Sequence to fold (182 residues):
Amino acid sequence: MRRFILYSRTGQTAPFVGSLMDAGRLDIVYQCIFTSMFASHAIRRDTEFHAFLYGAPIPPVHVAVDGKTLHDVRIDENTWRSILNNLLAGKDHPGISSKKEGIEGFSKDLSETYVLSEKGDPIEELKFSSPSFFVGDNVGLPKKFEDLLLKNGAKKVSIGQERYLAASTIDIVNYILDKKRI
Ligand SMILES: C[S@@+](CC[C@H](N)C(=O)[O-])C[C@H]1O[C@@H](n2cnc3c(N)ncnc32)[C@H](O)[C@@H]1O
Fold:
């Protein structure tokens, strides 16, 4: 099982009218769902994605996508704009749910946790069983939260020295884990 967890500092927490980008960079949430949950013509059934939204007006909101039960979805941005808007209006979708929960409470029960950072150990050198990966948005993980994860036993892991988009990072991690057959 793989789990990706995105900290979205600005993702809007109520229904919105404009684009995902204008709704506090919810486009990053969509892009990370896209690379976490989909292969070609397939949903990654062994994968979970979680986004924690800390934007206005009622943060935090926890959006969870579970590959085991996810269905009735396409991969285009309009589909996900509508799903995310419905979620924020209180309507769930098969395999997708939202609730009022902060990332600290959720994280404390996880084991085998990793902080994705270009300053971490090379991912190729690590062994994984059922990993949970934390990824930052366009600004990165808040330092205080990253320190808390590290204090609780998380390891920093890197996919290279370049700084990638959050969604590209997830895509590359999936590629490497697929090659390792995890
Ligand atoms: C666009 S980057 C964030 C950039 C931000 N300015 C920073 O300093 O963190 C988004 C996220 O992708 C992940 N990331 C980017 N490049 C990475 C790399 N080379 N190795 C591991 N994770 C990476 C990190 O989790 C980062 O917070």
